[in-house]
Write a structure and sequence with these properties.
The complex is a heterodimer of chains A (298) and B (338).
Chain A lengths: L2 H7 L8 H15 L1 H23 L31 H37 L1 H16 L2 H12 L3 H28 L2 H8 L4 H9 L4 H24 L11 H8 L8 H28 L6
Chain B lengths: L3 E16 L4 E17 L3 E5 L6 H8 L7 E6 L2 E2 L5 H7 L3 E4 L13 H12 L7 H11 L16 H13 L5 E5 L7 H18 L2 E6 L2 H7 L2 E6 L2 E7 H6 L4 H8 L42 H5 L15 E2 L4 H6 L7
């Protein structure tokens, strides 16, 4: 054996996985985007709050104390009390979980159904594509909240139904994005090569197309969570969503608006909470898009 | 003669043009319009023609990468077009393709090992325990080192990537390989390497090639027989010598006159035939002989009658052309009108 020649021939063994490279450039770009980092940190904080917070708050969210109602913020009640004397701080913390739960689950529904429909549409094309996309067009033509409202009024007002209806209204966005990306990836020669080897559609879709369309899905999912939270709160605000005494922010806002002049904080605090959470998801999603989009250098 | 491996009969590939509100088919691009030919076991048949003549479409249609509109593709006596999708997937073991663009034909997210492993896995060529050995063997066969198997495509040069493409095609032990412009994207020196590799593999594994190219120099080097296509139809077909030394169809003559001559002062000054105009649209191809709009020999008859592939008595066996005036042109009695 001539080891020297062997070593000379062998290039460095450390091969670079392009996925790892991509992750690195992604991180670099993402870290530089200050608002996105703040958004991400806030989301992480919200999730932790939702998980741990309810065990730490000093008051139960549903305990009434009518002697102590509509009080402003104090050391005992950081965010004051509402019209039944319940501690708003505890209710906000408990509501965090509900808000995130609605956001995540409704988007999960939209994502699973939307991505499936989008890939089928883009991959198979033809009549199926036309039918699916026309249905998506119809769904998109409705203003989001109106569609969700229509679905909830058919299903009946409850948190579960809000999740379902908000999920349905986020389907078309995913379907469209995924269809577009699938159309682009499907035309690549390596898909033909795998097809020529005898791969079935299942393998082509899951091993070769899906991994190449994930970035836009992730971005859209983040942005959709923000929209879903907003829509779900809106539904609860008009009484079609979470039912009392659930500490849902939209419902709290709705309760508080009757006391706007006497005790503005009852409405303002849940409203502010919604704004902060939605904003965090939006700037995080924007940051992700900038970091993941190869066309947007710098 | 050797055994027929691939027999294409009246193959048509029309691509619909959709339009209007309801997406109805308004018209068709007649990319391949009724071609027939046979490929015998162990030979290399080239399909040549200019861009858009339907040569790549023919290759894709044979493999059913695009479903052909009509016709028959018999492989080893079995009609591929009548197979179900599942049967066809199993059949793909015998027919492979090498693509033109070595940068687009390999998934950038897979290592070479994953690419080859997937091929072996799909067709279940060797048991799982022997896959690594088979991959190493394949890498060696195409002139790459087995130690390079864990690299990603972007770490290879164009020529090396094309070798990976060849290794992938070989991995399932095919009988027929369709090389769709397999060397067109490579440098001339790399082209020679890859072609010589393909010839070597043909000898070793008894492969049959359907070589699709627009590069006549390469075709002359590699082929046994040549098929010349123009606008979705075969205009001339025959063994390499007949086509290159004794072309009958005016289009073939023009095509061959475009090969650059290395000697600046050739003994016999070769006349360069410059064709007028562009290739007509395959959506609405010319009536009669499709070449009549650009043919210097065209007559009224050419505008009406579709010429069939036929042989004149002086032509070598197997050499056929689709022109009404082959004999007259050969004898010099039918003059070009320019």
């Amino acid at each position: 054996m001539n080891e020297e020649i062997n070593n000379g021939n062998a290039l460095p063994q450390t091969t670079v996985n392009p996925n790892v490279v991509k992750m690195k450039t992604f991180w670099k770009k993402f870290i530089r985007n200050k608002p996105a980092v703040i958004g991400g940190a806030l989301i992480l904080f919200f999730i932790l709050t939702a998980l741990i917070g309810p065990h730490l708050v000093p008051h139960s969210p549903n305990v009434q104390n009518l002697a102590n109602k509509l009080n402003g913020p104090s050391a005992e009640h950081w965010f004051g009390t509402d019209q039944y004397g319940r501690d708003i701080f505890s209710r906000i913390i408990n509501g965090m979980g509900i808000t995130l739960y609605v956001g995540f689950f409704s988007v999960t529904i939209g994502l699973i159904v939307g991505v499936t429909l989008g890939i089928i549409s883009g991959y198979y094309g033809g009549k199926l594509d036309a039918i699916i996309m026309r249905i998506m067009d119809v769904l998109l033509a409705f203003p989001g909240i109106l569609l969700a409202l229509a679905i909830v009024s058919v299903l009946g007002g409850s948190l579960q139904n809000v999740i379902i209806s908000v999920g349905i209204f986020s389907i078309p966005v995913f379907a469209r994005i995924v269809r577009g990306s699938t159309l682009a990836v499907r035309k690549l020669e390596y898909i033909d090569a795998v097809k020529a080897l005898g791969a079935n559609d299942f393998r082509i879709i899951f091993k070769h197309i899906l991994p190449n369309v994930t970035s836009p899905i992730i971005v859209q999912a983040t942005l959709s969570i923000a929209t879903s939270i907003l829509t779900a709160s809106g539904l609860s605000f008009i009484g079609m969503g979470a039912q009392p005494p659930m500490p849902e922010w939209g419902a709290m806002l709705s309760d508080g608006r009757n006391y706007m002049y006497d005790a503005g904080h009852v409405a303002a605090i849940p409203g502010l909470a919604i704004v902060v959470v939605v904003l965090a998801f939006n700037i995080f999603g924007d940051g992700l898009r900038d970091a993941l989009d190869p066309k947007m250098k710098n | 003669m050797a055994k027929e491996l691939l027999k294409v009969t009246d193959l048509k590939q029309y691509f619909p043009i959709k339009g209007g509100m309801l997406g109805r088919t308004i018209n068709n691009v007649k990319a391949v319009d009724g071609i027939s030919f046979t490929v015998y076991e162990g030979e290399t048949v080239s399909i040549v023609g200019e861009s858009g003549c339907g040569k790549s479409t023919t290759g894709r249609a044979i493999l059913r990468l695009d479903e052909p509109t009509s016709g028959q593709v018999e492989f080893n006596g079995e009609d591929l077009l009548s197979l179900s999708k599942r049967q066809m997937r199993a059949k793909r073991k015998d027919l492979q393709i090498i693509f033109q663009d070595p940068y687009a034909s390999i998934n950038p997210r897979q290592t070479v090992r994953q690419v080859l492993e997937e091929a072996l896995q799909i067709q279940n060529v060797v048991p799982k325990s022997e896959r690594d050995a088979k991959i190493a063997e394949l890498m060696e066969v195409v002139g790459l080192g087995a130690h390079q198997a864990d690299r990603f495509p972007h770490e290879f040069s164009g020529g090396q990537r094309q070798r990976i493409g060849i290794a992938r095609a070989l991995s399932v032990d095919p009988k027929l390989i369709i090389a769709d412009e397999a060397v067109s994207a490579l440098d001339v020196s790399i082209q020679a390497q890859v072609i010589n590799l393909m010839k070597k593999l043909q000898r070793e594994f008894g492969l049959t090639y359907l070589f699709i190219s627009h590069d006549l120099g390469v075709v002359r080097h590699i082929s046994d027989r040549v098929i010349v296509m123009y606008l979705g139809k075969i205009v001339e077909m025959g063994d390499k010598k007949s086509i290159f030394d004794n072309p009958q169809h005016p289009y073939t003559k023009a095509l061959l006159s475009a090969i650059p001559v290395p000697d600046p002062e050739p003994e016999k000054k070769q006349e360069r035939i410059i064709l007028q105009g562009d290739v007509p649209s395959p959506i609405d191809p010319p009536s009669g002989c499709r070449f009549h709009t650009r043919c210097p020999f065209a007559t009224e008859k050419c505008k009406v009658d579709v010429p069939e592939l036929r042989a004149e008595d002086y032509m070598k066996e197997g050499h056929v052309g689709a022109c009404h005036y082959m004999k007259e042109i050969e004898e010099g009695t039918h003059k070009p009108n320019y």
